[in-house]
Amino acid sequence: MRTWLTERFGIGVPVVGAPMAGVGAGRLAAAVSAAGALGMIGVPSAATAEWIAEQAAIAGGDGRPYGIGLLAWTLDGDPARLDAVLDARPSLVSVSFGPYAGPVERLRRAGITVVTQAGTTDEARAAERAGVDAVVARGSEAGGHGRGDVATLPLLQSVLDEVRIPVLAAGGVATARGLAAVLAAGAAGAWVGTAFMGCVETALPDAATGRVLAAGETDTAYGRVFDVVQRLAWPPEYGGRALRNAFFDRWAGREEELASDEEARAELEAARRSGDYDTAYVYAGQAVGMVRRRRTAAEVVAGFAEAERLLRRFAT
Q1: By the 8 A CB rule, do 225 and 279 touch?
Q2: Quick check: 77 pLDDT over 90?
Q3: Start and end residues for every CATH 3.20.20.70 domain found in the chain
Q4: Average pLDDT, stretch 109-123?
Q5: Cα 33 → chain centroid
Q6: What does the pLDDT look like over 236-291, one tens digit per residue?
Q7: Mean pLDDT of the chain
Q8: How far apart are CA 253 and CA 236, in angstroms?
Q9: Class of residue 162 by CB neighbours under 10 A (exposed 0-12, middle 13-18, buried 19+)
């Protein structure tokens, strides 16, 4: 399979392991890249420059390409994270969810390929104007943070028609069939997170992985509950899709009240420490029902490689 993504980075499978904060650090990124796709490090909002340098050394230790994902809203007024990324010189950097024009300019001046995630066609057009090398059309099925407005296939079709830069598809792509579908539509590859959440190389606690493996396709919910309770400064248009639990159900629709409830905040923090996922969160997309057992990243990537056979079959 030859696409802009495979040619740009010299990889064999047109899949990017999406940057998942708290899930995908250097070990997972290295494993995805070693398997022939492109692994990424997800930088948490509280990560230090030292943490970025440590994880980048792990991800890039064998010389293969890898990427780093940054949250744009965390960079304003704190240049240390971006400086650490520039020092690491990954092959790819994504800067999403907030003002990203300044970081994009610095990264491109350094010769680093830059992408951003877009949840609407207007966001994709703006990304192209800002000078990114490619845009990720991120549908509402995707796990973690982003817009919840448009599903992947409608968004992908619209974005492909409206921009001239390469487009990657995110949201709901968890198997070779999904990869074949977005490639056939014209995407340069898939931006995949949830499919890697059962991998042995993730940073997830065992209890959280167990929740992922037990979840079905209808067991996620989208909203801002977990950000509000932690007082995180996420732009309000970007909610998060996570496994539905009792804490989410109790507070969904009561976010204004939750924003000042210190008991609820303490409850969540205690649950995170103890691994109580009836209260603590596990971000995952609607494809979670297809993640049924522990696997290595190499096994997941090998499964995606079957898309080439499917595309040949469909072409005959």
Answers
A1: no
A2: no
A3: 4-202+291-315
A4: 98
A5: 15
A6: 999 999 999 999 999 999 999 999 999 999 999 999 999 999 999 999 999 999 99
A7: 96
A8: 14
A9: middle
Indicate the length of the chain as a whole number.
Answer: 316
pLDDT score, position 316: 61
SS3 168: strand
What is the DSSP code (8-state) at residue 49?
H
**Which pair of tokens denotes residue 242?**
């996570």
Looking at CATH, the fold of the domain delimited by 4-202+291-315 is given as: TIM Barrel (3.20.20)
- Neighbouring-strand partners of residue 69: 42, 94
What is the layout of strands, in order, in the sheet containing 220-223? 144-146, 239-243, 220-223
Q: What is the pLDDT of residue 266?
A: 98
**DSSP H helical segments within the chain, as ranges?**
4-9, 26-34, 49-59, 80-88, 101-109, 121-130, 152-162, 176-185, 206-214, 225-230, 246-251, 255-258, 262-274, 297-305, 307-315
The angle that helices 49-59 and 26-34 make with each other, rounded to 10 degrees, is 20
Interval 179-185 mean pLDDT = 97
pLDDT at 1 (0 to 100)? 85
Contact present, 24 and 196 (Cβ < 8 Å): yes
Alpha carbon distance 7, 14 (integer Å): 9
